[in-house]
Amino acid sequence: MSVEFTEATHYGAGMRRTSFAAMHCSMARSLEVMGDWWTPLILRDLHLGLARFDELAEDLGISRNLLTTRLAALVERGLVERRRYSERPPRHTYHLTEAGRDLVPVLTALTAWGDRWLAPKQGPPLRLQHRTCGKFFTPTVACSRCGEAVSAEDVVAHGGPGGRTGPGTRLVAKVLRNRQHAGATRRATRAAKADGAPLGL
């Protein structure tokens, strides 16, 4: 099941919010799919095993109309699937799709940030256990190549093949192009110095 974008998303009672679907930015397009503040909490509860509508409504304290709207949007976007468990009356359980499950590490990383900066005085509300090793852990973002934890200082962004200059990335694209050009110039300068060639300055 694929994740789908919509050009305009209904938000609240008759209100619309700006659509990020046309932006050439993976973060913006991810936020378009996530929708609003309720979405991560709904996805969290589904991952924790609250699969029925009444369970979600009670746990979150969200109105039933709003929850209906949010679940329908998540199903439409391919993050959640409905499974009927009763015909009369018709009732469903809700489950994360592959795309929805792929968001769980993102949600745990966000939770870890909240545990560090916003946790209650008593401590983190949840403890996370790694099923594979059985240990309790703090989620971190790690490099997929070397496995080391990644911080803001460790990340250098470069333009990718899908990058475009446009709404939401107008200056970012220019900054990345300039950075790549400067990096290429520095590499050429170092190579010339190593070869003993004149730099032409």
Q: How would you describe this structure to a colleague?
A:
- This protein is mainly α and 201 residues long.
- About 4% of the residues have low confidence.
Brief account:
It contains 7 helices and 6 strands.
CATH architectural label of the largest domain: Orthogonal Bundle
What does the overall shape look like?
A: extended
Please list the strands of the largest sheet in the order they lie side by side: 1-2
User: CATH topology of the largest domain, anyone?
Assistant: Arc Repressor Mutant, subunit A
- Name the CATH class of the largest domain: Mainly Alpha
State Rg: 22 Å
* Overall pLDDT confidence: 84
What is the total domain count?
A: 2
Element order: H for helix, E for strand? EEHHHHEEHHEEH
How would you classify the helix and strand content by structural class?
mainly alpha
- Give the low-pLDDT segments: 7-15
Question: What are the salient characteristics of this protein?
Answer:
201 residues, mainly alpha, Arc Repressor Mutant, subunit A, 2 domains, two-stranded antiparallel ribbon, extended
What layout of secondary structure does this protein have?
Blueprint: E1 9-10, E2 16-17, H1 26-34, H2 38-48, H3 53-60, H4 64-76, E3 80-86, E4 91-96, H5 98-102, H6 104-117, E5 128-129, E6 136-137, H7 170-195
Antiparallel strand pairs: 1-2, 3-4, 5-6
